[in-house]
Amino acid sequence: MADSTDMQCQPAGIRNCGPPEAGRSAEGAGFEPARELTPPTRFPGVRTRPDYAIPPRGHSVEAVNDLDFSTAMGRALAEAQSALEHGDVPVGAVLLDASGTTVAADHNRREEHDDPTAHAEMLVISRRARDLGDWRLTGHTLVVTLEPCPMCAGAAVWARLDRIVYGAPDPKAGGVWSLYNIPQDRRLNHRCEVVAGVREEECSSLLRDFFEGRRRGDADR
Amino acid sequence: MADSTDMQCQPAGIRNCGPPEAGRSAEGAGFEPARELTPPTRFPGVRTRPDYAIPPRGHSVEAVNDLDFSTAMGRALAEAQSALEHGDVPVGAVLLDASGTTVAADHNRREEHDDPTAHAEMLVISRRARDLGDWRLTGHTLVVTLEPCPMCAGAAVWARLDRIVYGAPDPKAGGVWSLYNIPQDRRLNHRCEVVAGVREEECSSLLRDFFEGRRRGDADR
Lengths: 221, 221
Known about the structure:
The structure is a homodimer. Chain A is of the alpha/beta class. Chain A has helices spanning 61-66, 69-83, 110-113, 120-132, 150-158, 200-220, and strands spanning 92-96, 102-107, 141-146, 163-168, 193-195. Chain A starts with 60 loop residues before the first helix and ends with a helix.
């Protein structure tokens, strides 16, 4: 396991599934260049990019690579499709246990349940924890079609998930890379490894089609 | 309503209930001095302190002052006491509607429900939205004994709450001032006014006693 001093310089040990474009400016996106930190290495995790993700305690890089996130993302995409049936933004999530088995799957139900907290990620985390009778979901991996928001990223940390795998970035509200990096904030009491960009194009196009369709629908009215 | 250009310099128009100590260094707490921002005024809300809180749209400063947060905090404190009965960290929350009437009250049930998302704030927001049949809780005020974490702060923004009122700061995991200022991040699509430090000493001592008792209990074993 990498210690905090070499985390920033460590090569991307895990599979790089196409993180958000590296050329994008860090300034103005909620990140500050490391030279401005005081002291410079106090919270390195806050600025850690997904492509420098931290292997969770007790898991080797090889074990991470053995998990097939693409198949799990396919299941999450199918869940996202189901959200369309009740007019919800198409976001789907699955939760894998330490062996990679899917133990929970759900999709965004905000409109269906009239509940602002009913994001796909919240529903799978909550259901699995209640099923297990333990709020500590150590060893679990969250696979979700859209980058989790601050609420869901916070829930992943509180649930002590090992890993968050997402498809499309969310430049407007992402809490894992785009606006904040909550799961790798070393000031919190747990960190999750992050893998970004798994089947990104499929995840993005599902959302793009939904919002374009809604705009067309609004124009017709 | 103040516009974005004068928000930073505006005097603390709302009642100052004793925000976190002003002398505390901004650096190393997730905030950066404004001079380092690029461009300097792009996201002023991210660095807004609770004592510079933004009056929500359609609500005058006077209307805010007319609400009696101290009474509501008393109710939240009583809820926090109830959490002790099932061994949960004593945090309580109430939700007030636009007229100041309590419409939901609950406390932390993480241990009781074996659910990492069952924080007091999540429970009241979720219940009220489902009761109303609308996830938009515009006009509502969340009153909570402890500064909300990033998960709960995110939920408050998604629920479009007008205001968050809290008692004790949470320097280890606060998402409203201590580590992040999510409810006043102007990159998100909604902002909440924030009032900090209402009955702070009572809220803090309840938590302090709980953790001291737990440490003593551990030592006895």
